[in-house]
Amino acid sequence: MKRQQTSSPPHFSSRLLMACLLGCFLFGGSPLAQAQLSWRIGYNVGWTSSDGFDESIRRFNEARPWLDTQLEEISYLDGFLFGFRIKYFELLWSGKTRLYEVGGIPPGGSPRRWAVDVKQNSVILNGAYPFWTKEEIGLSLEAGASIDYTYNLVRTRQTDEVEWTDAGSARGLSSHAFVNVTWRVARPLSLSVSPYFQIPWFQTDLSDMPGILVPNTPAPAEGEFEERLYVNYGLMLSFYAHF
Fold it and tell me: What's the rounded Cα separation, in Å, for the pair 153 and 79?
């Protein structure tokens, strides 16, 4: 039977939310805003770590010393992003994922394989302030921040199974702080490189994960696998098309 554990994001004050939205507006003065509309498409790579995830993987590997290769600890997620910018605001969708797969033959048994799928999807509203520009070469540097609505999911299955089993999931607000380096490579196109730091405002409960990966494992202590999962650093590489 499918098991699922979801932690609900905490309630945040309306004053804090309004202050963050106002911040996005105030930090929206960018050369990119000179265009009426800019479309953005690119790739997003994030490096991250999770103590709860890594401890579950350690228990999984210890219980199966006969695996061909050990299941990796979480290290990075990557995927596409796209969105648009109008004047002071930019709205993006980013989907990052990583699939881990291992297999082996237990003593006296038949071949077995497992897969662990990690996902992070975000809707991002951001704005940036230009602190340096060089118009004659089309180069600008911006600093900015965002409010994101983020959905985190960890799920697992044996590869001969059709259905995935949720090992932990959560959704709620998170934020980026970033620097945006933009170079206009042609009249309608700009290349953008954006290093960032992202932190969620909520926690993800992975307490089901050890028992799913290693049946009959001792139950974790209360709160042992509840953490701010996916606190990460990353890089967005994008193209803007200006209209």
Answer: 15
